[in-house]
């Protein structure tokens, strides 16, 4: 009988020195890898080995994501997110992403989102993204005031914004603001530091025209918006602008730079 070759396909791969090369990486690098995962998946790595039990607590990102029906209902999502913020180390965040989609219970789906946003700001998050989709109504952010020296990029999708929320005088590092499918119910969008403003598929519903005051703006994109056209205050640094009006826009006067 022929002797079995050591190179048969079912032989186990030879680990050089029997070492765990992933486990040999420093904690900081492993936490950077975990930061790319949804927070629920990052927490689950705590069962891999003793060293992994607390690695997730200092991951520099929070990704609360209901995509893929991971959670049974909004309450399950809220419970996980609240425990996550309670148990993680209060280390600085690079990014916080809140992505929630439910078709029914708006009260529970919206209950803690402002709290999660405030937590991210308190942890010096540089990037904050909020996408809250509900078939019955949009999340309304009007009484939230962002006061942070660190936030550089803000993304909003399918929310209603108004009141003092769009006053970014307390965010001197903010450079990029992107709003998609948002309802804008504010008399003013103001920021001294903002360089890039993108508003896509949204609507302006404030009484009177919304004024955009962003003197440091370099690029402006208003794409397929509805309602009253905004009034643009002087933008001496503006290099690129793109304007596209949808069928439901209302031209109250002209789209122009305010004096």
Rounded mean pLDDT is 83
Order of helices and strands: HHEHEHHEEEEEEEEEEEEE
Overall outline: globular
Quaternary structure = single chain
The amount of helix comes to 10-25%
Number of helices, counting only DSSP H or I runs of 4 residues or more: 5
Largest sheet composition = 12 strands, parallel
Sequence stretches where pLDDT stays below 50 over 5 or more residues = 1-15, 252-259
Number of strands: 15
Secondary-structure content class: alpha/beta
Approximately how much beta-strand content do the residues carry?
25-35%
* Rg, alpha carbons: 23 Å
Termini Cα gap: 95 Å
Search tags:
globular, three-stranded parallel beta sheet, 17% helix, 5 helices, twelve-stranded parallel beta sheet, 259 residues, 30% strand, alpha/beta, disordered N terminus, disordered C terminus
What does this structure look like?
Helices cover 17% and strands 30% of the residues. It has 259 residues and is α/β, with parallel strands linked by helices. The strands form 2 sheets. Strands 1, 2, 3, 4, 5, 6, 7, 8, 10, 11, 13 and 15 form a 12-stranded parallel beta sheet that branches. It has a 3-stranded parallel beta sheet with strand order 9-12-14, with no helix packed on it. Strand 1 (61-65), helix 3 (74-87) and strand 2 (95-102) form a beta-alpha-beta unit. The longest helix has 14 residues, at 74-87. It starts with 26 loop residues before the first helix and ends in a 9-residue tail after the last strand. Mean pLDDT is 83; it is low at 1-15 and 252-259.
